[in-house]
Write a structure and sequence with these properties.
heterotetramer, A mainly alpha (538), B mainly alpha (99), C mainly alpha (223), D alpha+beta (316), A: Cytochrome C Oxidase, Chain A, 15 helices, 67% helix, B: 99 residues, mainly alpha, 3 helices, 0% strand
Amino acid sequence: MRTPASEPREHYLNVSYGVRSWLFTTDHKRIALLYLLAITFFFFVGGAFAVLIRLELMTPAGDLVQSETYNKLFTMHGLIMVFFFLIPSIPAVLGNFLVPMMIGARDLAFPRLNLASWYIFIVGGLFTMFAVVAGGVDTGWTFYTPYSSTYSNTHVVATALGVFITGFSSILTGLNFIVTIHKMRAPGLTWFRLPLFIWAHYATSLIMVLGTPVLAITIALVAIERVLRIGIFDPALGGDPILFQHLFWFYSHPAVYIMILPAMGVMSELVACFSRKRVFGYGFIAFSSLAIAVLGFLVWGHHMFVSGQSVYAAIVFSILSFLVAIPSAVKVFNWTATLYKGSISYQTPMLYAFGFIGLFTVGGLTGLFLASLGVDVHVTDTYFVVAHFHYIMVGGVVMGYLGGIHFWWPKISGRMYPEGWGRLAALVIFIGFNLTFFPQFLLGYLGMPRRYHFYPPEFQVLNVMSSAGASILGVGYLIPMVYLIWSLRYGAVADSNPWEAKGLEWQTPSPPPTQNFEQTPVVQDEAYAYWPGEVEVD
Amino acid sequence: MSQRVLPQKTYYLVFAALLLLTLVTVEVAFFDMGILNFSIALAISTCKSLIVILYFMHLRYSSRLTWVVAGAGFFWLFILMALTMSDYLTRAWLSVPGW
Amino acid sequence: MRIGQGRSRLTEIHAVPAHQFDDLDQQREASSLGMWVFLVTEIMFFGGMFTGYTVYRHAYPEVFADASRRLSVVLGALNTSILICSSLTMALAVRSAQAGKRRALIGFLVLTMLLGSAFLGIKSVEYAHKFHEHLVPGATFTFPGPRAQHAELFFSFYFAMTGLHALHMVIGIAILGALVALSWRGRFCPEDYAAVENTGLYWHFVDIVWIFLFPLLYLISRT
Amino acid sequence: MRLDFPLFPEQASTVAGRVDALYFFLVAVSVVFSSLIFMLVGYFAVKYRRRSDAEWPRPILGDLRLELLWTIVPLGIALVMFVWGASLYFTISRPPAEALEISVVAKQWMWKFQHPGGQREINALHVPMGRPVKLTMTSEDVIHSFFVPVFRVKMDVLPGRYTSMWFEATKAGDYHSFCAEYCGTQHSGMLGRVIVLVPAQYERWLSAAAVGESPAAAGARLFQQLGCQNCHRADSGEKGPALDGLFGRPVRLQGGATVFADEAYLRESIFDPNAKIVAGYRQVMPTFRGQISEEGLFQIIAHIKSLTKEETAKAR
């Protein structure tokens, strides 16, 4: 059922106009777009800091900025990218847009709460941006005590408040998803007919709900300690700085899975659609998401192998860290197997999927180095760690995010992006990424510590390579930004299902009506019914 | 949400039990029983919160999903405490000869 | 009779689910599940502090016991009892809402608010005592003996935990006030009283936090 | 720009080779698995590329045997890595008994070292080749981390606490040491040198850098000045336990517990004397927190350790 483009059809974008109709909307699709705007802003702010960092590291001497400034740059890069881009990226934009549509619901269970989450996010962002503008913060995104609570002379409290507040946005989004997925599924949509994107978001929501409150209270305690000069984490006042690290990583390690799980969900959708195959081992991928969510909470101590933590606790955390690698490996193998005897097309989203599988594999395998106690002692707190988590977070999450944005762009905007430019950008990003971050593995094993403003000259060549890659990567990110905006006006009009994909979101027009579906859909088939005979969707 | 209206008597019984347990926990604290003091206090608190959850919060009459949610909360708290304490309780071991 | 008719008319009006729900049952289940999930986040929120408390109590057991003796067990026990009473009245308020007894509902809600305020009143008396005895962590803190620093840690946790708990009480009382206003206008009926039920869950949760705080802070050792 | 840049760090300690061996094992496993994935993805992507838009391949549900295979095989390999890494970690965490003991005090932004002969150094550390060296470390302010890449060892340095690390250098040379835990403005300026000398050169360096007073002797002087000997004497009776032969032995505490008298215990007993009371004594000792610097404390502990050595020598 196609609507000709010339005939104006009411959908969520044109149902009402004006700033108020957006700022007071409770439509999950519009809120998703509000998030898209906000996180794009934060992405480019965080990216600008990264550019300055890489420029500074072109030479061994600290000649572009002073040490104070450099320390603020990497701190704010980390803070903004982690809390204001990576964590909300896929869940708050794609998840918000798609979770209700994929399960055949009209909206999330609590639409007003959803809008409140966005406002909370913005308020948290404002506090953090205030700290940035007022002079910045230099504690590192990890806020390690007693540096953050006693010694730093920068805007720690404002930043801590920003992170504290933003945490509640994350908690409420997770809560909304959990209730929605439990209670709002369309008739016939049993758990094992859910798209794997939904399973991934369910797992991510669990982590948001169970982990984020601990970060919130920990950051609050640091702020209280700093303001009142009491010693909860400061050994000079009787406290224990290792306790801070435990509480911080209890959330912040699982937070990695908050970021990567939704990207894995996107991957399952992309790989299935562009190879026209049912996802291989659906149940294993679904349960591996839950396994990652649960096991992810048991491994935080691997950030602390040289921190002065007990040797015996370190050993327990090490073996648990190896265990959490297994479900990730299972996913990669299953995606690869899905390609087998498929009908594979190389459209832009699929290129991102290939990129994701490659980079995530490297990122995941190098994670094993960090779980191995003996090797971790050498590589922890070096550029090896930096390279590893950028392979997961940029190579994994950002690739998944961009792949997802391209895949669902026709649904979100009703327009097609230019395919040629899309493929070019995907290629540029892939090349730029590897050039930026692969040399950092070598730097790390050579012993270059992270967060270094200046460094011995023998590390320079690899650093220059990394900086050169970063400039390519930066261009790569600007290209989609430009052509996606361009496509809003000049792109070809998209029909309801340009990829011939399965999934309820493709059964409603693009862009969808405010209520998502003309009638509540009834589901009679599994999620990835890519097989002959039932190609047509009425 | 439970639709079932419990008899008033249930609530008063729970109330009486809670008050009684409060009295017991205060009394017990005045006897020195070493490590037992802590265990008893914790056991009584757990009992009290259990009956609050089961009857005042109607968990007993709620769906299995609600049970799972409530259980998950306490289980994750247990993870946080147990793994954190696994560090503190074993820190001194390495310096002990023979370990 | 007139009131009854009014109520049944109101029932028909607001027994319509919000647009995203198919029916009232779905809405009710969703809001209840949402509340339970929220309480789980609250467990973890307090959990961070309970963990910190556990670590330091394990590290400095004697000092924590000494510091704990400076708290008034009488006031603590009194407050525990008051909070248990308020939980009872809250449970009875929910029961009244279930049964559609509007006046009883309002009565129990008001009673719960009063008991909650009494708790906060006693708490502020305790805080004032601590202030006079220089037991508030910070520059003025004094504690006899060589291990004042570790006693200060105890009081840091005491104030952080009871303070956060009291903040939850204040929020709870504000919500109860809103509920009183809403039930005055006949907003609740046996088909739709989710707000009362959920506030009840919240109130009982706050009670449970105190059930653990009381022995951990006041009763470490009284011998 | 130096173009003769290294791609791999030198090996200059006994554990470096073992760490590298595990590292190469991990690299090998990574290369095997990632090439497997890359080749399969590439091969499938070409072989099964879409040839016509009307093409709808037959679905494949999955295969339990394959799932088990790629769950159990990685699990097995991961367990090998775990055991290997953990045994190495034990080696790195447990200093040999006869190690040369050097005390390290870190502060923003410098490293201070003191040798058993009293020689002091800042941001440079001279060590002998072929002899285990144990560093006992503490910080005066924030967390630092002592890292020597060519030795493949690293340990955080915490305020208010001792941590330790050890290495045995195998190759003479002048190497970098870094602070690896972010510690504020001049974090990257906490760059140091570790100079490994052959034993003869090391002896020469020791005598050239000699200051006359060993830490143990300085500690004995401090011990006198602070009046410690008033209570802690062999014949002091009930006032305080004698310290001769204390170090490295188990101590029975009030309440029946036993602790092992290491540096951490001595530190706690001096700064927080009532935390652990020795069985048979009362809480009378005042705290010395604030009266002794971190370096002074190292010296007092060196003095207490020397009492044990004398004891052992006498017994022989």
